[in-house]
Specification:
This protein is of the alpha/beta class. It folds into 2 domains: about 110 residues, Rossmann fold (3-Layer(aba) Sandwich); about 120 residues, 3-Layer(aba) Sandwich (Rossmann fold). The strands form 3 sheets. Strands 8-7-9-10-11 form a 5-stranded parallel β-sheet. Helix 3 links the parallel strand 7 and strand 8. About 30% of the residues are buried. Bound molecules: flavin-adenine dinucleotide (FAD). The site of flavin-adenine dinucleotide (FAD) has 28 residues, from helix 4, helix 5 and helix 6.
Length: about 250
């Protein structure tokens, strides 16, 4: 915390930006308020869109992603934390100069140190890096049936992710959860299987390039978002897809 605060503060003083952008991550949310406070900057957190024309406008979500609000910042300079995964990664740096910055850290002001890291279960996979995600929801009914979507993910060389109830049930580890209280993902293809498309889930995957939904309910909100929809029983569709892509459906 103290090291980041000092480093970002020093960088801010050197660059003197109109807008100081920081990640809305666990770490970012630790040091951003301290930096903003020490430099008397208004702080807007969890931005999903930012515009700077006359002044600075920052879009945020409220009420569990049901409402978007635009904050017009009434100040010349401001600090903003940006929600990770909200934009696809930039290709290259264009004509922006990227350079190293050496900050002088006052060691005597460092009051906290990291003594170690504890892995949350299944820390081997980062779903936010995946190009193709096969994502499973409560429509899968039972833990034993997860093997079916796992087989589809294997066949497609994709990564397995899920909605929150699957994680809450302990059927997949927390790092597989997509959504507001999970991870934000922006894969090329997102296949939502037995997922209704609740706002908290959509908050994590609406940036996917192509969305395919498999759901028996034609009125499921996921279809408002999907590019392709298969309104049918996943227990029929998923084995057929596995076979179509050259795999072998498991017996479940
Ligand atoms: C503060 C807060 C934070 C939250 N954060 C998250 C989050 O990060 N991620 C998240 O996912 N949720 C989150 N939630 C929960 C969210 O509100 C929903 O409850 C959850 O996303 C629903 O998961 P689901 O779509 O798997 O289940 P359901 O909503 O139960 O949907 C299951 C779907 O499967 C379909 N189905 C059933 N059987 C079949 C079949 N045989 N074949 C095909 N389709 C079938 C049904 O038609 C249904 O649409 C959060 C909630 C709150 C309050």
């Amino acid at each position: 915390h103290d090291v980041y605060v000092q480093a970002v503060e020093a960088l801010y003083d050197e660059v003197e930006p109109d807008t100081l952008l920081m990640p809305n991550s666990v770490n970012g949310l630790d040091y951003a308020p301290a930096v903003a406070n020490r430099r008397s900057l208004p702080l807007v957190t969890d931005a999903i869109d930012i515009k700077r024309d006359e002044g600075l406008s920052v879009t945020r979500e409220k009420y569990g992603s049901k409402v978007e609000t635009v904050v017009e910042v009434d100040a010349d300079r401001a600090a903003v934390t940006v929600r990770p995964g909200e934009w696809p990664p930039a290709e290259g740096t264009d004509d922006t100069e990227v350079r190293a910055f050496d900050a002088d850290i006052d060691e005597s002001a460092v009051r906290s140190t990291v003594t170690g890291f504890q892995e949350v279960g299944g820390g081997d996979v980062d779903i936010s890096e995946a190009e193709v995600l096969v994502s499973v929801g409560r429509g899968i009914e039972e833990e034993e049936n997860i093997a079916l979507v796992e087989a589809l993910a294997d066949t497609l060389d994709a990564t397995l992710s899920s909605s929150r109830p699957i994680v809450d049930n302990g059927w997949l580890p927390k790092n597989r959860q997509v959504g507001q209280s999970g991870k934000q993902v922006t894969p090329e293809v997102y296949i939502a299987i037995g997922i209704s498309g609740a706002v908290q889930h959509v908050a994590g995957m609406k940036g996917a390039e192509t969305i395919v939904a498999i759901n028996t309910d034609p009125n499921a909100p996921i279809y408002d978002l999907a590019d392709y929809g298969i309104v049918d029983d996943l227990f029929e569709v998923v084995p057929a897809l596995i076979e179509a892509f050259g795999g072998e459906p498991p017996d479940i």
